[in-house]
Amino acid sequence: MTDTAFDTTPAIDPAALKVSDEVAIEISNMNKWYGSFHVLRDIDLTVHRGERIVIAGPSGSGKSTMIRCINRLEEHQSGKIIVDGTELTSDLKNIDKIRSEVGMCFQHFNLFPHLTILENCTLAPIWVRKTPKKEAVETAMHFLEKVKIPDQANKYPGQLSGGQQQRVAIARSLCMKPRIMLFDEPTSALDPEMIKEVLDTMIELAQEGMTMICVTHEMGFARQVANRVIFMDQGQIVEQNEPEEFFNNPRSERTKLFLSQILGH
Amino acid sequence: MTTLTDPPAESFKLSMLVYDTRYRSITFQILALVAVLLLFGWLTMNTAQNLNDLGKEPSFSFLGESAGYDINQRLIDYSSQSTHLRAAFVGLLNTLLVAAMGCATATVIGVIVGVLRLSGNWLVARLMTVYVEMFRNVPVLMWIVLCMAILIEAMPPPSAFRGDDPDATMKLFDSVAITNRGVYIPEPLFSRSLGDFHVGAAFDVSINLIAILIVLGASIFVARGIARRADAKQEATGLRPRTWHTRLAVIVLPTVVLLAILGFHLGYPELKGFNFAGGTYMRNSLIALWLALSLYTAAFIAEIVRAGILAISSGQTEAAAALGLRNNRIMSLVVLPQAMRVIIPPLISQYLNLTKNSSLAIAVGYMDITGTLMGITLNQTGRELETVLLGMLVYLAISLIISGVMNWYNNRVKLVER
């Protein structure tokens, strides 16, 4: 582990991070309805390994729903989703395979309150990956050190602050050694001063080459880490571009309006 | 330079007892306590005086007298020559029997119905809703009487089993007879019995039963050891060895061997004259009471279980699913352990309700503690005050024990916060 403490915001050059040609996620022509409400319309998205994608958009635009489709927390009704070469169908085996490749962090952390921090991190490796407990504990402690809370390992989630809980949630996902991480508004439920500690953890993750898709309103994070920003509205991908281009020369009117609203104050 | 001084000593005024917030609540509490004590004192004095005028000294000596009545459903030996105390004890055991059977069945049915009510299957979920609404919206007394009526009307009388071409036959290889008087089942008998163990003059405890319980206990202890070894193996290698068959064998085999040594065999009920003889039997009253109490309480437990599961946010299920856990594991590792904390406190009151509702047994003639001590004994001895006080004490003791045990369990599984 490198000794990079993110006490100050690290300088990171998105261009320096390598993006390989290998396709990690391929979504083509995906549609989803809630009853008669068309939530996602003709989504086409290819994610290469090592990409850091930020998804922005107004609430109700389908951002969360889209990334929740990638690990089947939501079911898509038409189109194709291929994750790491496995097509997402209702076949349980495929779902299991994809879920063990894809980690996810939620807005409200969703730690298991009846288990200690360490047990939260070892539960899935032990029961899903069939890792020996000793090894699972070692891995868990490694990742807890990485998110800088190894001393809280034997506490319960209720005893931690929001920022610490979200970092535990990240460590819990990492314990499954995923190749892709999904973040669903990871900082939206946090106090402002805790946002930074979570973002720093995510930046460190990006530096190590993790493929990341992040729904967030943190435009600073998008500028700094993302190699691509996607703007969604009314269930469609309206625009996608490199951060600089996206923020400086938005093409569609809808994007311009959105950016003026969130950056305007 | 300032000098520190004591705050000025206040002079105490009598009006402060009422108008000063520091003394006000204490004053009123003392007044209320005095009023309550006076009321109780007056009631006790009055009752004692009136009993005295009637020539009835409060006394519990009637408990040692011969009861002079029969009890048809009992777990221990009893005859009409036995004392009122023993009759009360038979009644107490009957109460505990139906309460324990009822709580167990109600929990099983309740959990199943509660989970199924959340099922995605429209028909199943609706059926469970109908069940819950039907049972919890009708007084339990009616369900008890209805169950009794159905058992009496729908089952054949013992005479139907007679003749060359009987109308009714015994079930399960001629071992069980279901009649309108009750269900006759085989009884356990020991040809090489170890005899009985006498506790005082009144109670006999079967040594056979003790031996079986000891062996069973030891087997379960060993089986748990095997399970712990499997846990250790899982911790060390990640793979959990399949042990359920060795565990089952360890539990079952020693007991079977002991039963064989004791010469265990079943005494089958047989039709003799107008009724069945041999075997043991559960009267209709017990079955009706058990059924009605279980089904009635299960409707409430189902709602509690449903609420408990719904109280766990969907985020928990999603997080577990995102980690790759399958539904059954999510239920057993994540949802149920948390739901238990919501379920247990109201579950305690359902167990207490069931136990207390079992006093409705008298409606179908099942002789529980209400039927014996506060029923026939009261009528025969005229000791209403003593019997009712004793009865209340018994129910109070049972209830306190149940809630004590459940609260202990609840504390053990409580969530740690802050």
TrEMBL record, chain A:
PROSITE patterns: ABC_TRANSPORTER_1 (PS00211), ABC_TRANSPORTER_2 (PS50893)
One GO MF term: ATP hydrolysis activity
UniProt entry keywords in alphabetical sequence: ATP-binding, Nucleotide-binding, Transport
Keyword Transport tagged: yes
CDD domains reported for this sequence: ABC_HisP_GlnQ
InterPro entries: AAA+_ATPase, ABC_ATPase_HisP-typ, ABC_transporter-like_ATP-bd, ABC_transporter-like_CS, MetN_ABC_transporter-like, P-loop_NTPase
Entry keyword Cell division: no
Organism superkingdom: Bacteria
Domain ABC transporter: 25-259
Family: Belongs to the ABC transporter superfamily.
The protein's name: Amino acid ABC transporter ATP-binding protein
Lineage, broadest ranks: Bacteria, Pseudomonadati, Pseudomonadota, Alphaproteobacteria, Rhodobacterales
TrEMBL record, chain B:
Keyword terms, alphabetized: Amino-acid transport, Cell membrane, Membrane, Transmembrane, Transmembrane helix, Transport
Highest taxon above the source species: Bacteria
Broad class of the protein's primary localization: membrane
Family matches, as SUPFAM superfamilies: MetI-like
PROSITE patterns (UniProt xref): ABC_TM1
Transmembrane spans: 26-45, 87-116, 137-155, 205-227, 248-267, 287-309, 358-376, 388-409
CDD domains: TM_PBP2
Gene Ontology BP annotations: amino acid transport
Entry membrane topology: Multi-pass membrane protein
Entry's localization field: Cell inner membrane; Cell membrane
GO cellular component terms attached to this protein's record: ATP-binding cassette (ABC) transporter complex
Domain ABC transmembrane type-1 span(s) in chain numbering: 92-406
Annotated family: Belongs to the binding-protein-dependent transport system permease family. HisMQ subfamily.
UniProt-recorded name of the protein: ABC transporter permease subunit
Organism: Pseudooceanicola sediminis
